[in-house]
Amino acid sequence: MSLVFSYKEDFTLESGKVVQGFHLAYTTWGHLNSARDNVIWVFHALTANSNPAEWWPGIVGPNAFLNPEQYFIVCVNMPSSCYGSISPLSTNPQTGEPYYHQFPMFTTRDMVRSYQLLQQHLGIEKVYLGIGGSMGGQQLLEWAIEDPALFENIVPIATNAFHSSWGIAFNTSQRQCIEADPTWKQQHATAGIEGMKVARSVALLSYRHYDTYQQSQAGYTPETAHLPVDEQVARAETYQQYQGEKLARRFNAFSYYFLSKAMDTHNVGRGRQSAQKALQSITARTLVIGISSDLLFPPSEQAFIAQHIPGAQLSVIDSFYGHDGFLLEYDTIIKLLTGFLDISSQHKQLSTQQVLINQ
Question: Are 152 and 345 in contact (CB under 8 A)?
């Protein structure tokens, strides 16, 4: 079920700026059970939406591993995105016009604090499992630190405790592509869209891997393979162009720009002494998953997370898909989740038995 949560009060961001209310688009499946302990909270990545059944088939949705017949599943479209939540194209109540370039940036921590208000609205007091990859995993870690008692289990995938200089450099280059578009400074919804297409092609280089391109995009397009060498077109070239065009059909440059800036600010240690100290405050049972070929969020970043969350497990999936492996290796992710959650259920039953014995 697709819904919208509206918050009418002032909301203060980490920057100190105040938003005069906001709205969040979110999707729910299933129902809360009588014990109210069957909540799954899914966090989406940069350009996805609040319907993980679309972008995580097999993991979430009817007849999937995380099935609404068993769980109450919640996924929120993050602020700044273009899929229904407050964004740069939303109306600024102070001007009556879209925010555009004046949109106040929501950090990942701001996003989590907005979700907490939705959580209260839904009457959720406990989350059985929080799961998310990439920017979604960043938000999950933030929330598990903000409210350690909320989550029973968390599974951050292909993510980090603070965004690296390498990641910031990639995002900066993508924003420079948008800024170089002559239309970017204009006040309309399609401003900067050609620049965003180029930005997306840059992003793909960080999402995939050398081997990915060698195995799937080698050689020349069939239409040009027989032509003189100066007229041949590489498959990798058309693939990059296609990915930019594909994103432009469903996204806008403003959301892309502000979401990338939000990712750059991610640092669970900000105002909490250090990232290590912040991670140590997480009490949820934790499975951290990395992707062996991930260039953007390398496995060393997941190892850092697992090292500092008490009792955390670490699994690294061997994949040639690079960072996008967290979206594509769902069969392996399901196997890891199955073992992790089975152990969690056994642990929960044992804990209950111990309480009954102690009583």
Answer: no
Q: Which residues are catalytic?
A: 134, 294, 323
| pLDDT digit string, tens, across residues 102-148 | 999 999 999 999 999 999 999 999 999 999 999 999 999 999 999 99
Give me the domains of the chain, ranges plus CATH numbers.
2-164+267-358 (3.40.50.1820), 169-259 (1.10.1740.110)
Report the distance separating Cα 154 and Cα 132, nearest Å: 9
CA distance linking residue 99 with residue 308, whole number of Å: 39
Structure-block tokens of residue 291: 């992707």
> Is-contact 193 253, C-beta < 8 A?
yes
Q: Give the angle subtended at the CA of 195 by the CAs of 190 and 196, to the nearest 5°.
A: 70
Annotated binding site: 200, 324
Q: At what angle do helices 235-248 and 193-207 cross, to 10 degrees?
A: 120
Note the pLDDT tens digit of each residue in 217-270. Answer: 999 998 898 888 888 888 999 999 999 999 999 999 999 999 999 999 999 999
pLDDT digits (tens, 9 = 90+) for 26-82: 999 999 999 999 999 999 999 999 999 999 998 999 889 999 999 999 999 999 999
Residue with tokens 């044992």: 350
Alpha helices in the chain (DSSP H): 52-55, 108-122, 135-146, 165-179, 193-207, 210-216, 235-248, 253-265, 275-280, 299-308, 325-328, 330-358
Residues with Cβ within 8 Å of 118's Cβ and at least 6 positions away in sequence, in order, are 5, 24, 26, 76
CA gap 164, 162 in Å, rounded: 6
Binding site as annotated, residues for substrate: 200, 324
Tokens of 26: 């979110």
User: What is the model's pLDDT at position 231?
Assistant: 81
Residue in the block written with tokens 């929501």? 106
Q: Is the full-model pTM beyond 0.90? A: yes
